[in-house]
Specification:
- By secondary structure, the protein is mostly helical.
- The chain has one domain.
- The chain contains eleven helices and no strands.
- The longest helix has 34 residues.
- Keywords: Membrane, Transmembrane, Transmembrane helix.
Length: 257
């Protein structure tokens, strides 16, 4: 276990030793602060409580998704791009452990960004809007945590997709570009297919990543879809993505490409 922890620590060092990581963190912080300033001094958003502001900052989670895709799409492929994969594989750790350490590092990066956004949104809201008045139950702190948790599911699934493409094709640009394209276009594609009465669309990944209708009330994209169904579909996709990543990373010859 200690050797695996060292692998994770090594991957974390790789992530945070690059300037782009700190730029990403700075952008997350500045995005939240800028949103608070705009809502308070530029547009009248009718916000009078920090919890109201925090509930709105969940809409900024797409920024975290994009940044996570960049890390996940690069974390495996960059080893091949820079030729460091052979140095990595001469370690006594198995390929499976190395891949798992990389994936765990991606998840830790996601948690760091989400926690940063949550904390900064609280203090930004506290300073700019204060805590006067009463908020509705759907904007209470437990509801906000649920909303962040649901966004976390979407981020993790998109990052796992990018991770798989990175391991499968060993191309950072392909993994990042394709994942971001799917993230931005998938909802529109799903809505078009739903309008065309294509019921099989319910088996698509991005038709199931938004779990908010099951938690906060509302209708799923197709009748008959349930929380259990969507969680099952997401679990199947997760197993597929990580399984393909593991198979190609552990079995494919490094020199052969």
């Amino acid at each position: 276990m200690s050797s695996f922890i060292r692998l994770v620590q090594n991957e974390q060092m790789k992530i945070y030793s690059r300037l782009r990581t700190w730029v990403m963190l700075a952008i997350v912080v500045l995005s939240v602060i800028s949103a608070g300033v705009l809502m308070r001094f530029v547009i009248d958003a009718g916000i009078h409580h920090t919890l109201q502001f925090m509930s709105l900052t969940t809409s900024l989670a797409s920024i975290i998704t994009i940044f996570t895709v960049i890390i996940a799409g690069d974390i495996v492929a960059s080893e091949f791009t820079w030729g460091t994969i052979k140095l990595l594989l001469i370690r006594p750790a198995s390929r499976g452990k190395i891949l798992c350490a990389k994936y765990i590092s991606v998840l830790l990066f996601i948690l760091t960004l989400v926690a940063t956004m949550l904390i900064i949104s609280y203090f930004t809201g506290l300073i700019i809007f204060g805590v006067s008045g009463v908020v509705s139950p759907d904007m209470a702190f437990p509801a906000i945590l649920k909303a962040y948790g649901l966004k976390l599911v979407q981020i993790v699934m998109t990052a796992t997709l990018a991770f798989m493409i990175s391991a499968a094709f060993r191309s950072s640009s392909l993994a990042i570009g394709l994942s971001i394209f799917l993230m931005l276009s998938a909802n529109s594609i799903v809505l078009v297919l739903v309008s065309l009465k294509k019921t099989w669309v319910k088996y698509f990944l991005f038709a199931n990543t938004d779990l908010s209708p099951y938690v906060f009330g509302g209708k799923p994209i197709l009748p008959g879809m349930t929380l259990g169904f969507s969680l099952t579909v997401l679990a199947a996709y997760w197993l597929l993505f990580y399984g393909v990543s593991w198979l190609l990373f552990t079995k494919r010859d490094v020199a052969g490409g």
